[in-house]
Amino acid sequence: QQQVKQSPQSLIVQKGGISIINCAYENTAFDYFPWYQQFPGKGPALLIAIRPDVSEKKEGRFTISFNKSAKQFSLHIMDSQPGDSATYFCAASMDGATNKLIFGTGTLLAVQP
Amino acid sequence: EPEVTQTPSHQVTQMGQEVILRCVPISNHLYFYWYRQILGQKVEFLVSFYNNEISEKSEIFDDQFSVERPDGSNFTLKIRSTKLEDSAMYFCASSGEVKAFFGQGTRLTVV
Question: Residue B17 belongs to what H/E stretch?
Answer without folding.
Answer: none
